[in-house]
Specification:
Layout (H helix, E strand, L loop, with lengths): L1 H14 L1 E16 L3 E7 L5 E12 L9 E9 L5 E9 L4 E12 L5 E8 L6 E15 L3
Length: 144
Amino acid sequence: MRKLLFLLVLFAPMLCLAQQWQVVNSVALFSQNQAVQQTTLVTPSQSGLYRISMYFSVSSGVDVSPEAYFDTTITGQDVTGLPNVIDVGLSCKRTLFESVPTQNVALKAGVPLTYTVSTMGIPGSCTYNLGIVVEQLVQSNQSH
C-alpha cells in the first residue's frame, strides 16, 4: 500500500500534464472571386506538431469560361526539410465542395505555413468559400 501511495505522489504531477490542440490561426472567406496572394498562416518559433483543416467550395455562375476554376494551396516545410503541400482545385462548371481530410504535420521552425488562392480562366460570377483552421499541439498544465 505504501508503495502505491509513493508512486501516486511521485507521478501525480506528470499525470496532470496534458497535451491539447490550440487554434493558432483561422481563415474564413465567403463569396469571393479574386485571387489571394501568398499569405502567412503561422511561422513556428520552434518545430512542433500542427493540425490543418480546410473546407473549400465553389458556386457556379453565369458568364463563366469553360476552363474557369479556383485553386487553393497550403504550403509549409516539414521538420525533415521536405515540403508539405495541400492543393485543391475546383472547377466553376458546377457547384462543388471539398472537405479536405485533417492533416497532422510537423512544421519546421522559422519556415512559414502559407496559403494562396489562384484563379484560372474567367470566373465571371462564380465564387468560392474557403475555411482554414491551423492548430498547434501544446502542453497544458491542468490542475486536478
